[in-house]
Amino acid sequence: DLPKKFLFVTCGDWDLSSCLPRQLHYHKQSVPMIYQRWINIKHAFRALYKIKPLGMTHMLSLLDMELIGRHHSGIDDCRNITRICCGMLQDGWEPKQTNN
């Protein structure tokens, strides 16, 4: 079952918990199962390091990484979130769903 084999990783819950459902509701569509489970990297970061991150740039800084590209550019944010995930994996992180 595809939705159980992977999770999207977000920096915050808003995109998948609020924005996408509202947009789909406007178009009289339901939220596909694949978008109902995700990892909020801020929650995962806090659980692993016991530090509440202020955002993506803060997490990068705490991992001794610099922001690559422009903050809030979709593709650049994806690349930076991926870098955060890689750093966390090296530190023993085991990815798990964070939304309820």
TrEMBL record:
GO-annotated molecular function: 3'-5'-RNA exonuclease activity; nucleic acid binding
Keyword Hydrolase: yes
Name of the protein in question: Exonuclease domain-containing protein
Keyword Transcription regulation: no
Sorted UniProt keywords: Exonuclease, Hydrolase, Nuclease
